[in-house]
Amino acid sequence: MTGKYEILVHEVGPRDGLQSISTLFSTSAKLEWIRAEAQAGVRQIQVGSFVPPKMLPQMADSAEVVAQAKQIEGLTVSALVPNLKGAQNGIAAGADQLGVVMSVSEAHNQSNVRRSLNESLAGFSQIVAYRNEVEADRKTVISGGLATSFGCTISGKIPLADVMALAEQLVARGADRLSVADTVGYANPRQVRELFDELFRTVGRDIPVGAHFHDTRGLGLANVCAALEAGVREFDSCLGGLGGCPYAPGASGNIVTEDLVFMLESMGMKTGIDLDGLLTAREIMQRHLKGEPTQGTFAKAGPPLGFVPASAA
Ligand code: ZN
Questions:
Q1: Pairing of β 97-100 and β 141-146
Q2: What domains does the chain contain, in order, with CATH numbers?
Q3: Checking DSSP bridges between strand 141-146 and strand 209-212, what pairing results, if any?
Q4: How far is the CA of 160 from the centre of ligand 1 (A)?
Q5: For the chain, does the N or the C end have fewer beta carbons within 10 angstroms?
Q6: Complete DSSP assignment for 169-197
Q7: Which pLDDT belongs to residue 118?
Q8: Does 238 participate in catalysis according to the annotation?
């Protein structure tokens, strides 16, 4: 998945960031942002989610955004779906990858997608079967999501065994990859290392595994380092940390794309992403905001003197 670069940075701002702010982005504003990030070298972007428009008006144009983003050369276009209906719409729109949302925490799953975890798993099997039926080449990648893997705002601590059980279920039901999320920003680096070590023991290393961290309590990039040590090579992030945290007003949400890229590149890990290009994309995104705050320190401080990104070396 990561190709000639060592790390895949998966920008999720046009979905995760936008769904938690009130300013409604037009289709053209989303595409301006997406094009600028692709131009900077970002190779995979989550551009929307296929949910009923009544639930999330911000995502109502996802089919159009996917179709247009697909015109961008070399870009892997991903989207989020909660159920079979969403997956059917996502495949029809031409998404390259669909992330299927479900939570390790039963209570969180109920409140987020209004079904039991068993119902979500049955839905996951239906999605894989549908994809296999309509696509002989199985080209749409189906990603199994494990939200609240590190803790839950309703249930508190999440047993590691529950995370492993869900991962095994998803793999058995045909997941092409897994995405492990610290949905509410509870994780710490030791916990991250332990979880991914155990996950690779459980599902092996043939299946790609991505990590989705939040910076709610300032540990986002420390958690990335711990996941890197465990062998994770794909990370979700959000330009300018857009969106914040819906559970803690004022706190950061998703880890910041430009800070993540700076850290990786300064550690000698190639992302293929140009930091100046990312800052340009950040300005473009900010132009469309109406007072929503952005996060991130690289945009304020700039690179250190003599900094040579790994991708440029
Ligand atoms: Zn997130």
A1: parallel
A2: 8-312 (3.20.20.70)
A3: unpaired
A4: 20
A5: C
A6: HHHHTT-SEEEEE-TTS---HHHHHHHHH
A7: 96
A8: no
